Amino acid sequence: MDLAGTLARSTPVRRFAALAMAAAALALGGCYYPGGSMQSGGASTYESTTFFPVTVTIRNTLTQENIWTTDVPVGQQLVIWFNDNMRPGDALLPDTMDWELMPTGTRYGGLDNTVPMPSASCRAVVVTKRKGPEAPAPVSADTGAPSGDGL
Questions:
Q1: CA 29, CA 85: separation in Å to the nearest integer?
Q2: Do residues 122 and 95 make contact, with C-beta atoms less than 8 angstroms apart?
Q3: What are the extents of the domains in the chain?
Q4: Which run of H or of E encompasses 78?
Q5: Residue 118 three-state SS
Q6: Sorting pLDDT into bands at 50, 70 and 90, what band is 15?
Q7: Strand order from edge to edge, sheet including 54-60
Q8: Quick one: pLDDT at residue 87?
Q9: 105 to each of 3, 24, 75, 86, 88, how far by Cα in Å?
Q10: Closest Cα to residue 77, out of 53, 58, 57, 102?
Q11: Cα dist. 112→39, 42, 102 in Å?
Q12: Residues in Cβ contact with 62 at an 8 Å cutoff, skipping those fewer than 6 apart
């Protein structure tokens, strides 16, 4: 049985519900594009290229302290997603940030790393360019993943 046939035989309310759920799944699952989703609360994506390698830092704007940083390897992208008020018992770090490094061009995938963060009004994402050009990390032939320690 195909989806078109199922939708044709369903009631208008069921069709609307199915379409609404599909749209919500796409919105919540997110698509990762450089520059972000262009909507508030979406994922932000930062790519490193040979001539524009980047470092992404999260800064506490109250203390001017850098609280998290990573050098995005060339040929990779960093995807981050902030979640508000996930730690309501912690006044200093009430939010969380989910993040993942993945190959450039990846549009979907899980963000398996989580770190506590200050609230949105107390944090800034700072992107800096490292000196380039920078060579991409060698890729392991058996897994397609960057070779070497830590990746």
A1: 20
A2: no
A3: 1-30, 31-129
A4: strand 76-83
A5: coil
A6: low
A7: 65-71, 54-60, 123-129
A8: 95
A9: 29, 22, 9, 29, 35
A10: 102
A11: 22, 16, 11
A12: 118, 122
